[in-house]
């Protein structure tokens, strides 16, 4: 996995392939909304397993059915392929099973 | 929640309203199959929260994407409404979000 | 569970029985610190099950080993016994098993 | 991680370094006992994250506070270093935080 800081152009290109992700506070951001806390936390559990697998972790907060996610790669102080990888996995988990 | 032991007739009626549940070893049984361990364990997490909420817990085993569930109510040595309640909730969680 | 808004005096008394909780932004607040994401998220899972059981949920955020928790009871726009109940359960879970 | 099938001698040596694990049905076996379902399932969540990280998964069942674990490596039809690695991680998680 490439962890070099992406250029603005790369970021735009990658964003165009995702749903509802945006750049906010220089981080990759999305607010996931579920109907229940149960659904929100089951989603978070699926994501947590991916995070440990790829050794990359989000800044995220939860209030009832909402899960607010910010992704960035601290060691390069920017957004990398790793962030887009995690974003994509989160979208898959949010839709499954 | 009524915890009186259901009659065979009640059990048949309740089973007819569920998908793919059966009686096995005198317990309410279903094998849930998911494609990945991630999906199986996210499902189990959703179920675990329901179990604590209704204070009723399954006998269940997991191997990779499979979750094998047996439900019974020990204090009446039989199947009760509580088991069907949990079975129904499991089906909802398996289909969501 | 009593959900009447607690007086400042009640809050002080309850706070004195807990470890490291404080009032911040008019909410009951504590920052839990774990060494690993694995520990932090396992803790969150234990808490999530309690939340569904008592039907009371936190505002919480997680970054790696840190879990930052704010508790309040929206329907009374203040802090109640329910918040202290959840705070206490969180402390128990953070220390176990 | 070495995934060659271990000899009986290797297995004995590795077993001597672990607590309460044994060979049962030709698999590495341990029964973890917790006081509550909450503790058992929080433990399972911690383990699930490790499983995804190392891409190795148990055969395990849960009834309330009990988590019964069998480890084996299917592709070599035997016990490998990977099983002992997971066993060791489970022991660490069972004791933490």
Structure characterization notes:
4 copies of one chain form a homotetramer. The first copy, chain A, has one domain: Transcriptional coactivator/pterin dehydratase (Gyrase A, domain 2). In chain A, a hairpin with a 2-residue loop joins strand 1 and strand 2. In chain A, helix 2 packs antiparallel against helix 3. The first copy, chain A, has a 4-stranded antiparallel β-sheet, covered by helices on one side. Chain A has 97 residues and is of the alpha+beta class. Chains A and B meet through helix 2 and helix 3 of A and helix 2 and helix 3 of B.
Write the layout of secondary structure elements.
Four copies of one chain form a homotetramer.
Chain A: H1 8-15, E1 22-24, E2 27-33, H2 37-54, E3 59-63, E4 66-71, H3 81-95
Antiparallel strand pairs in A: 1-2, 2-4, 3-4
Helix pairs in contact in A: 2-3
Write a brief structural summary.
The structure is a homotetramer of 97-residue chains. Chain A is built from three helices and four strands, in the order H-E-E-H-E-E-H.
Instruction: Tell me the helix content of chain A.
Output: 40-55%
Shape of chain A: globular
Radius of gyration of chain A: 13 Å
Oligomer: homotetramer
- Sheet with the most strands: spatial strand order of chain A: 1-2-4-3
Strand content of chain A: 15-25%
Characterize the main sheet of chain A: 4 strands, antiparallel
> How many E strands of chain A?
4
